Amino acid sequence: MSTIEGDDEQDLTRKQRREQARAKRRELEQAEAASALRRTRLTQLGIVAVIVVAIVVGIVVATGGGSKKGIATNPIERNATVGEVSSLLGGIPESGNNALGSPTAPVTLQYFADLQCPVCRQFTLGALKPLIESYVRPGELRIEFHSFQTATRDPETFRAQQVAALAAGKQQRGWYYVELFYHQQGEESTGYVTESYLLGLARQVPGLDMGKWASDRSSPELASSVASDEVAAKTHGFSGTPAFAIGKTGGTMQKLEYSSLTDPGSFVTAIQRLAKR
Amino acid sequence: MSARTLRITLLALTLIGLGVASYLTYVHYAGIKPACTAGESCTKVQTSQYSKLAGVPVALIGLIGYVSILTSLLAPENETSRFATVALTVVGFGFSGYLTGRELFSIHAICEWCVSSAVIMTLLMCLSIWRFLRGDLTARGAEPESRIAAAEPAAPLGATRS
Hints:
heterodimer; A: alpha+beta; 6-stranded mixed beta sheet
């Protein structure tokens, strides 16, 4: 009896030990499998991260230089730009250094801008064009260009570029300069506005007397005009550019809120409302 | 956090991101100014040369991204769908990082809509990586898939030894 019981006990212990060993083995295998799965997941994540980094670097390199490289050096491209600006502005009178359109136009729109401001470029190449064609050319609207420093970091550069446009305005060519600047605007904060850039633009303005333009650039009257525009912009409560004020010519100017840079709708509504008064 | 709560959180964040991206896409195509408390900053960002990538508005790319993430979250939950969510959110995070860098160093203006999308995408990425690495519990509260998956290769080995 005791021998049988002893054998049973030994059998049980052996069975238990086998079970325990099997359980331990299973646990080890499960732990190894879990660890392998975790490694696989981390590898997958790493692969995705590397691909994403490569894509982002590719995008940065591809978009790094931007499409706007400043003044056109290719004569064909330059002639096309000058031609486009000339056909937009040709035959429209300019007056008072900064105004485009007939001085007797019933409505005046004041356009506050920084020549380096890319959003102003959007407006100039967008909603401004149909406004000039449909309202300025027929003599219903005059547009004044005013200075407000936003995108240009260096105040001296800002003054120099804005005065360069006003100096062209002394020869009734200011809007040519403004349009040519925006058409060939460089990438923001790259320091592209240099003396040769400003000179290069002036050379593109049809019929501009370069000697007179150069001497007018040092006129204190123009520098003070830029400074007084800054004060006017702050009085209107403008915080960015482009910003606008509109009113009857010779009357009080009211701040104009626009809804789109490419659709002239909100400008047209204000012009028509003022013209009816 | 339970698997169910985690999935609901991911879905909620994706829906908010989808709303932001839809609004920015609408603003882009309607040519209107986005509602912005920081003056003209949003307009500046939205109309900059970086607002398009290969001619496609980045707002639309964002919208497509959020729709893809939503699809991966609504798909039956398994290792593949969780990996898809992770891959999409990592791509979204990388793209958001690129755009934020452009805002800070190229455009010098911050668009609050873009920043909110970037924050949402960052949260989505962190949560989905966590969900993927922990081999999440299914929504019904079954065994962790990692344990099930771990047991599978062990079975034939055990069978040969017993």
